[in-house]
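User: I'm preparing a small set of examples for a lab meeting where we compare how different chains pack in three dimensions. I only have the primary sequence for this one, and I'd like the structure in token form so I can line it up with the others. Please keep the answer compact; I'll paste it straight into my notes.
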Amino acid sequence: MLNIIIFGAPGSGKGTQSDLIKERFQLEHISTGDVLRAELKNETELGKTAKAYIDQGQLVPDGLICDMLDKQLDRMPADAKGVIFDGFPRTIPQAEALEGILQKRGWSVSVLLELQVDDEELVTRLVKRGQISGRSDDNETTIRSRLNVYHTQTSPLIGYYKQKGKHIAIRGLGTIDDIFNRICDALNG
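Assistant: Understood. Below is the structure token output for the 189-residue chain.
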């Protein structure tokens, strides 16, 4: 089973590459943001609990996100070839929780694919995305703040997975196809 964590700073191309990887390797795709939005929309018990935190301006606790993820994995087809995790884990405690969730199924994380893109390129990409999509959070001030959070809080996961021998760095510059070809070479190598 091929279980991939797609990882990188905001604007590094995780969503775009996840779609291509999913198609090529016939994997399931779990975006924790999508899962959370679905739980909220469907007003499930987990969604109602999450909404209470969100309504108070708080982050949804890791345990609740893990419960949603666990439930999502339970819905996967029995013949699934693996999963791409997009947006999770973001911290070492989340990575440890993910290991437990997978371990009870006899699975493990195969690799953390880190899309490496320098900050100035990320800012350029996200500002451009904001101009096209109208996303209000894609302005330079907010983008730089999100990058700071990524570098201080999220990037320690790189070292965590390097220690486990499960980290692969992918240069995230060039065309979408160039980047995807690097990913395929890494996964097939």
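A couple of notes for your slides: The CA atoms of residues 90 and 141 lie 22 Å apart. The domain at 2-188 is CATH 3.40.50.300 (Rossmann fold).

User: Perfect, thanks.
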